[in-house]
């Protein structure tokens, strides 16, 4: 899961980001409303931890703006007060849950997990490490960088990610990507895999896609 933490208490933000990372997730931190709103528009996010009191733009306005824009990522509001009126205001602004400071990290993570379970299944999204592909939007990212892929390149990457850790034969790629429009003697498959590798791996100094001579290709699960 990939989370965003927005709080002007830099120490707390960094602490939550580190805890989420050590718990096997990825997380980014922001320290004010405007930069938090910009980061919250990232379609790869699985949840947002958002403080109510933020400089530049408060958390309620950030949440309200996201909902007005159609962004449905789960939001947990952090508040220093437990007043009913403040909770109601947060929920009315579009938040999914709230947590009163100070809080236990274990409870925050449990609430994030609960929200993820209630969220509609994002079956169109594949994630292998920092490599993310959204089949519905036809977009892919490595870390924070969106990948510029042609339609064929996107489909090659999709098939490799769907079969991460397993060998994908040339015949399988032929059936899934070219739908029989070419044949195994053509170098189209090798050319497209090479282009995908250049954009997904070499541009980032990685080795994710490996060639298994005489067998096919494999996208490694631990690049």
TrEMBL record:
Domain Response regulatory residues, every copy: 2-116
Entry-annotated residues carrying 4-aspartylphosphate: 51
Keywords, alphabetical: DNA-binding, Phosphoprotein
Occurrences of domain OmpR/PhoB-type (ranges): 123-221
SUPFAM superfamilies in the cross-refs: C-terminal effector domain of the bipartite response regulators, CheY-like
Keyword NADP attributed: no
Pfam families, alphabetized: Response_reg (PF00072), Trans_reg_C (PF00486)
Organism: Streptomyces albidocamelliae
DNA-binding region ranges: 123-221
The protein's name in its UniProt record: Response regulator transcription factor
Matches recorded under SMART domains: REC (SM00448), Trans_reg_C (SM00862)
PANTHER family referenced in this protein's UniProt entry, alphabetically: REGULATOR OF RPOS, TRANSCRIPTIONAL REGULATORY PROTEIN TCRX-RELATED
């Amino acid at each position: 899961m990939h989370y965003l933490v927005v709080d002007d208490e830099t120490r707390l933000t960094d602490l939550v980001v580190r805890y989420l990372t050590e718990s096997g997730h990825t997380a980014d931190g922001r320290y004010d409303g405007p930069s938090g709103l910009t980061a919250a528009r990232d379609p790869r996010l699985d949840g947002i931890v958002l403080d109510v009191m933020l400089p530049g733009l408060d958390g309620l306005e950030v949440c309200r703006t996201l909902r007005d824009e159609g962004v449905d990522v789960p939001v947990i509001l952090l508040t220093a007060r437990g007043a009913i009126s403040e909770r109601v205001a947060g929920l009315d602004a579009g938040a999914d849950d709230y947590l009163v400071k100070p809080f236990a990290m274990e409870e925050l993570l449990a609430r994030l997990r609960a929200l993820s379970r209630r969220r509609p299944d994002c079956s169109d999204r594949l994630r292998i490490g920092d490599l993310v592909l959204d089949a519905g939007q036809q977009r892919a990212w490595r870390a924070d960088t969106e990948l510029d892929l042609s339609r064929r390149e996107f489909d090659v990457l999709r098939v490799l990610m769907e079969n991460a850790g397993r060998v994908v034969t040339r015949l399988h790629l032929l059936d899934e990507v070219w739908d029989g429009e070419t044949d195994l003697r053509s170098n189209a498959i090798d050319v497209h895999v090479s282009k995908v590798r250049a954009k997904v791996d070499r541009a980032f100094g990685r080795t994710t896609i490996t060639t298994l001579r005489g067998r096919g290709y494999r996208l490694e699960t631990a690049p």
